[in-house]
Amino acid sequence: MESVKTIEELQVQDKRVLIRVDYNVPLNERGEITDDVRIAKSLDTLRYCLERGARVILMSHLGRPKGTPEAKYSLKPAALHLEKLLGKPVSLLGDCVGSEVEKAVQSMKAGDIVMLENLRFHAEETKNDLTFAKKLAGLADVYVNDAFGAAHRAHASTAGVTEFLPSAAGFLLAQELRYLGKAITNPDRPFVTILGGAKVSDKIKLITNLIDKADTILIGGAMAYTFYKVMGIGIGNSKFEPEGVPAAEQALKKAREKNFQLLFPVDRVIAQSIETASQSKVIETDIPDGWSGFDIGPKTVEKYKQVLAGAKTIVWNGPVGLFEFKPFDQGTYELAKFISTLQATKIIGGGDTAAAVRQFGFDKQMSHVSTGGGASLEFLEGTLLPGVTALANKTTVSK
């Protein structure tokens, strides 16, 4: 894993500290935050700086604006929520660059905190435009990246800005790299991974990388049906991904060649539709026409528990069923509950898996719940993350 300087090795005392956070949080139709985990997990880094008299300048994106301001993507809800969590005022500035922003930053006192408006209101952010990055860097003395959820993007605020300021990882980013890095490079064994979610094509790099790293892979979720199709098992009307067939064939071939344990559900919960969930049933045979698979069955849960019971490292990426709808949440719930009781390093990939584990109330019993969906996936695939590489490559600073 790349060696990255952490915030404790950076001089933040009485400095202006530019911190890239990931406040890309879900909002309801009233513009209220429905899950504040990403904000809450940034507090350690913020408090560390504030306690040392730093002037903290936060920057983030929210949603996918098209490079111009859009009121619905304002970071105002994040600023108000952070104010509550920190118990001190957080000023949201009207932009992220420009003379007004510079003036506001200039007038900050020790222990003040401001938030720049959505970075993606400027098209230059996603283009990693160095002129734009230099403007951001010009607001501060040092830079801290604590946005693991955006570390897989080579953007001005994650990569470009490191060229102009002394840079380091915040506590959250460092923790993500520590847990995920150890799992990939030096896991305590046996190392078991659970892979779910819908698309095999999205996860093929992950599967092939993990066949080289893990001891066993347990497959669940809708992607199982693409594998079944390749293996000649009837899938009825289940979600099937034709473009995922080559990926599934490739994974099966590699597992056979390496004599690797790639395990599939032995039974499944089927229904004719989500609407007719009350008439769902469990089968071990081919799924009949007109029926679809929505979850792993109880025999699979027991089989998977037996494998997990002996694991020393567990990485879980992707729910094993349609957990948002009862009774198709049972497989994911049972595995989460069981894993929460184990003495092992238990790492939950971000996105839907993290949401499921939190929904069921088992997140506190896990060793690490990632805040990055796409970032944790790419990291586990063995892909270098631009935001991390930019920190690792820090040698000189041009101002």
Going by CATH, the architecture of the largest domain would be 3-Layer(aba) Sandwich
Mean pLDDT: 93
Count, helices: 15
| Helical content (DSSP H or I, runs of 4+) | 25-40%
Described by the principal axes of the CA atoms, the overall outline is: elongated
Reported for the largest beta sheet, the result is: 6 strands, parallel
Percent of residues in beta strands: 5-15%
Helix and strand sequence: EHHEHEHEHHEEHEHEHHEEEEHEHEHEHH
**CATH level-four homologous superfamily name of the largest domain:** Phosphoglycerate kinase, N-terminal domain
User: How many domains?
Assistant: 2
Structure overview:
The protein starts with 15 loop residues before the first strand and ends in a 7-residue tail after the last helix. The protein folds into two domains: 7-173, 3-Layer(aba) Sandwich (Rossmann fold); 187-381, Rossmann fold, CATH 3.40.50. Strands 3-4-2-1-5-6 form a six-stranded parallel sheet. The chain has a six-stranded parallel sheet with strand order 9-8-7-13-14-15, sandwiched between helices. It has a three-stranded antiparallel sheet with strand order 11-10-12. It has 15 helices and 15 strands. The model has no long low-confidence stretch (mean pLDDT 93). By secondary structure, the protein is α/β, with parallel strands linked by helices. The chain is elongated and about 70 Å long.
